[in-house]
Design a protein that fits this description.
Helices cover 41% and strands 17% of the residues. It contains 10 helices and 14 strands. By secondary structure, the protein is an alpha/beta fold. A 7-stranded parallel beta sheet has the order 3-2-1-4-5-6-11, with helices on both faces. The chain has a 3-stranded mixed beta sheet with strand order 12-9-14.
Amino acid sequence: MPADLLAITGATGFVGQAVLDLATRAGLEVRALARRPQEARAGVEWVQGDLGDERALKRLVGRASVVLHIAGVVNAPDAAGFETGNVVGTLNVVNAALGAGVNRLVHVSSLSAREPQLSAYGASKLRGEKIVRASSLDWTIVRPPAVYGPRDTEMLELFRLARRGYVPLPPEGKLSIIHVADLARLLLALVPGGEDVTDLTFEPDDGQPGGWSHVGLAKAIGVAVGRRVTAMPLPQRVLGWGAKLDGMVRKDKAKLTLDRVGYMCHPDWTVGEGRAPPPALWRPQVETRMGLHATAAWYREAGWLK
């Protein structure tokens, strides 16, 4: 990869850690933004700060050839939290890149941006995309579907439920998923840019034709954890009650929120036809059933799954 210096936001998050691992193994010089002090790591220069810290962002992108913007807010108690992290934060990154003379930006959005009316999260991701598109940068946007793999805390709950033998689900529908290692490979493959990726939006997945039904994915996770599961599609109103209960119990740490219920109940979260990255550049390598098994094994080893 020709980038002299790759600046990364969100490098300490689930996807960001996978990208950082891959980038350092490839011998790339990386400068990474982090809210808290990090342990020294070969090939990585840490910049302490966040997306609202203009001075830190200026340090992050100075001398960089490419900015890989992964950071964002996936869960917030209200729309303002999504706006701050996914809209204002993206604007700050774009302005910092332009101010430093950086030409290229790879922006990680979300498949939820395709249906912004369903959730404050999706609406904020779409507004972030619009900021990137309106800029004079050489940009590529990636809209991942559900991402799973080691270190993930979002789909961990499904694995834990499957281990107990039952998985409550949204109403009947289908979705696409992708292993974090495949997503990391794609993001780094996009770093150099080129006419086949510039000013384009991609929706990658695991290559499963037609995606996964909710029930089919739940059963596959059950196999991965060694249990035959009972999959239980629930009406949206019941999931809404569950979200209110989760909010009462876990407050701002709740995983099931009313905002999430809004987009979870959409019947089709499969990637868009014609939105796949160029096959000469990237193809998924992780077969999902094997990836689910490996993820379950990682959870067990880490003590996250009994």
